Every structure is written in structure tokens, then in C-alpha cells.
Amino acid sequence: MQVKEYLKIEKAASLSRSEVGRLGVAIIFIVLVVIYTGSNFAHVEQAYLLISAAVIGAYMAMNIGANDVANNVGPAVGSFALTLTGAIAIAAVFEAGGAIIAGGDVVSTVKKGIIDPADINDANVFVWVMMGALMGAAIWLNAATWLGAPVSTTHAIVGGVMGAGIAAGGWDIVNWDSMGKIALSWVISPVTGGIVAAGFLYTLKKMVFFRDDPVEAAKRVVPVMIAIMAWAFTTYIFLKGVSKIISVSFPTALVAGLLVAALVWVLVTPIIRKAAPGLTPDRDGVNRLFTIPLILSAALLSFAHGANDVANAVGPLAGVVDVLTEGAGGAKVAIPLWIMVIGALGIAVGLALFGPKLIRTVGSEITELDRSRAFCIALAAAITVIIASQMGMPISSTHVALGAVFGVGFLREFLEQRLGRVVENVLASHKGQPDFLETERVLNDFRNAPPEDKLRILTELKKMGAEAVIPAAQRKELQKALKRQLVKRSALLKIISAWIITVPVSAFLAAMFYFVLRGMMLP
User: Fold this and answer.
1) What pTM does this model have?
2) Helix, strand, coil shares of the chain as percentages rounded to 5?
3) 271 within some domain
4) What are φ and ψ of residue 175, in 5° steps?
5) Can you give the residue range of the structural domain that contains 240?
């Protein structure tokens, strides 16, 4: 056997062993869930249904960790502020912490009012609806992760509840006004995130990167942006965490955030001024200032995500437990701590085992990210989610984060193409003039320069006046280079397609699972 063929077989076997290992760990986690629920709820009349629901909830939580968490840490990994291992460790800890500490004592088992539980009078039917919803959403998330498409777990569970609800009670059971708002969020979420992220990045470019001395400008601007980040996350933590201990209104949280932001600005400003002399006077030097803020933002975004999205895994599970143990099944139920722990651990396990694929997709396969761009994405995600939640907008944190990534990429494309058009106009106005070799050298430097350096080179071109000339063939080559796509269109198409079909596919799968459960359980 040839050495090359042998190496191919070894590589395939290594991948297979790795995959088997991940599946083995996931199965061990599921078995532990079965053992715990079986030993603590053996006295329940339909204990097998409760155990089954717990297993499905754990499976759903693992899929949330594998798919959705990438949006929080992907930009930090893609910009090399964090290693993949470090990002997984930080996200796992903070996702679990957010789920347990601030996951909420009460959540809606019917998610966003999609169906009215009063229309499901039979407790067994209610249990089948919730289990079908969880299973349908989890299967779709699993498929989306395998395809490398980050999708909204909230939309998946909403589609699951809708599909199972329709299967149980017909089309009239669905609150179609709520579904219309969710469909609208497919547009609102990414567009808002993209605009906010692009706005922050453009501000950085104008106030820092386009300056003659970027590091000197960064000494003034970067502390302000870090303070804005501190304000956003402090406000959110007050609303989600502190409010569980004492009553906190939005204005109070806002003021607390502003106070922390002011303190952070006071502390960070001298640190950055002290670090500035050791930085190179270019984009790379400025990017180093965003390393620690990026790591903190990844941790805080993971905490916020765990607090919000754990309900997608355990909300319906809590409804099943409530029906089987208490005979209730109203619109809202308290989530016991053991259920929150299953959701938190499931998210952490899913992230560690299957999250790297989506982390790479978000961090490096959509557009090239450096630390300043990644910081703008994280900041946009935090601010947009806070504002939207206070306005009651049905916004998806997944869509916001990915919209921010696309917004940053498209802003870079726009700025490069605009500069290209200006250069073409300058060249055309000076056609036929001498000193071609010098002009060619300048234009080649321009073509290969980073976007931020192009403005300075463009200024030099304008100063050359009549000497700034290049033949038509060279102009076309330059124009083509300037119009290169900085956002991967195949990734854009794949992700948007996955977003559009998330609700209907989850609904279809959930309806199928409901009918299977109903067929198995009825005499």
C-alpha cells in the first residue's frame, strides 16, 4: 500500500474516532439525565414520559450549545483574541452560569404566546405537544449545525410549538399575530444588528484608523467605546440578574450602567495611555487595545445568552414536569433548579463537543475579522438586544449577531468600492501624462494596501496631479481588485435560507413527532 493512501486512511480513521468520542460523551450525559430523573421521579404515575421529556430537553440544550453559542465567541476567535479552546471554556462556564443564575424563575411554556394552552384541555395532549415541539426543534438544530448554518433557537422552538399545536388543535389554535411579528423579526434583527455594527466600525475608521497617527487617536476614542460596552452589559445584567433579588426598573438599570461606564472610562484611560508608546502606529497596534475587552464581551454575551435561551430547552420540559407531577399545565410554570441545571449543562456539553464548527463559520468563513471589527460586532449585539427587549420587539440574538458580522463585511466592501471610483475619476482626468512608472508604483501600493491605508495613498495620488496616469488595461485591473467581495456570498445565501425555513421545518417535524407520540400512547 502506498504511503499516501495509508495516510488518507489514517486521517479518516482519526476523524471517525474523534466523532465516536464526541457521541460517546453526549450519550453519557443523556444517561446521567435518565438516571437522575428516574431515581427522583419513580413515584410519578407516568414516570417514563417525564424521563423521555428530560432526555429530549437535554438533547435540545446540547443542540443550542452546538449551534447558537458560536455567535457569542465566534468573532473573538476569528480575530485571534481567543483561541478556540479558550473560547469554548469561557463560553461553557458563562453560559451555564447565566442559565442557572439569571435564567428566570418563570417562563412561558408556550413560548411567545404562539398557542393558547386553554385550547388544550387534555393534560396528556399538552405533554405530547411539548415533547413534539422540543424534538422537532432539536432535530432541526442538529441538522443546521451539521450543515454549518447558525440559526435562531428561539425561532426553532416557536416553530416546534406551533407545529405540534396545529397537529393537536388545528390551525385556529395558533396566534397568527405573534407569528407575523416573528416573521418580521427575520428582517428587523439582522438589519438592525448590521446597521449598529457598521455604525460603530465607521466611527472607528473615521476617528482612529483614517488618522495620521491612529494610536494617538485611539487613546481618546477606545476608552469611550469600552465604556459604552460596560454600560450596555451592566444595564443588561441589572435587568436580568439583579432584578431577581430586588425590583429594578429600566431607568434604574440605565443609571447603574452609566455609573459603571464612567468608572470604567476613568480606569481604562490611563491604562491605554500607558500602553500606547509600545504599540506600532498602525491598525495592528490599535487592534491590540481591544483584546481584553473582546474576551470580556465574549464572556458577558455568553452569560446573557445562557440566561435568555436556556428557556428554549427547558421551558417546554418544565411544562411537561408540571403536568405530570402537579396536574397543572397553565401558560406559565416555575422551573425547578434541577431542570435549569440540565439545560445549563446541556448547553455547555453541546458547545464543547460540537460547537467548533459553527464558531469557525461565524468567526472566519463569512468575512475577515480583526479585533476592532469583532469588538464592534459584540457591542452592536449587546446594545441591539437590550433596546429591542425594552421596546418589546421580537428580535433574535442570533440574527442580530450574524447581521452585525455581515454589516461589518458590507461596510468594508462599500468603502473599498467608493475609493475605487474616486481613483478611476482621478486617473481619467489625467490621462496621457508622463511618469508612468512612478504612477504605476503608487497604484500598485494602493491596490495591495489595507482599506484604511487607501485613503492616505489616495491623497498622495491627488497631489501628483498630471503625473497620476495609467493605461486603460491597468485601470480595469485596479478597478477589479477594488471590487473584490469581502463577504462570502455562499455563506450569506446558506444562512438566510436556513433562517427562512427554520420555523416551517421545525413545525413540520414537531407535528410529525406529535402524531408519532399520539399513536404510541393512545390505546
Assistant:
1) 0.77
2) 80, 0, 15
3) yes
4) -85, 95
5) 214-280
Question: How many separate domains does the chain show?
Answer: 1
Question: CA-CA distance, 353 to 346, in Å (whole number)?
Answer: 11
Give which of 176, 173, 170, 165 is closest to 125, Cα–Cα: 165
Task: Give how far Cα 139 sits from Cα of 13, 60, 407, Å.
Answer: 27, 8, 30
Given phi > 0 = left and psi -120 to 50 = alpha, else beta, which region is 392?
A: left
Grid cell digits, residue 434: 508622463
Q: What is the pLDDT along the chain (523 residues), one digit of tens a residue?
A: 454 544 444 444 444 456 777 888 888 999 999 998 888 887 877 788 888 888 988 998 898 888 888 888 888 888 888 888 888 888 888 888 877 776 654 444 444 456 666 667 777 788 888 889 889 999 999 999 888 888 888 888 888 888 988 888 888 787 777 777 777 777 888 888 899 999 999 998 888 887 878 888 889 999 999 999 899 888 877 776 665 566 778 888 889 999 999 999 999 999 999 988 888 887 888 888 888 888 888 888 888 777 767 767 777 777 778 777 776 555 555 567 788 888 888 888 888 888 888 888 888 778 888 888 899 998 888 888 777 766 666 567 788 888 899 999 888 888 776 655 555 555 555 555 555 445 555 555 555 555 555 555 555 545 544 444 444 454 455 555 555 567 777 888 888 888 889 989 999 999 999 998 888 766 5
Q: Is residue 264 part of a domain?
A: yes
Q: Is residue 234 part of a domain?
A: yes
Looking at residue 426, its amino acid is V
Q: Note whether residue 501 is domain-resident.
A: no
Task: Take residue 312 and report the three cell numbers written for it.
Answer: 428554549
By C-alpha distance, which of 74, 30, 63 is closest to 144?
A: 63
* Residue pair 380/197 in contact by the 8 Å Cβ criterion: yes
- Residue found by looking up cell 477589479 in the block: 480
CA distance 255 to 76: 29
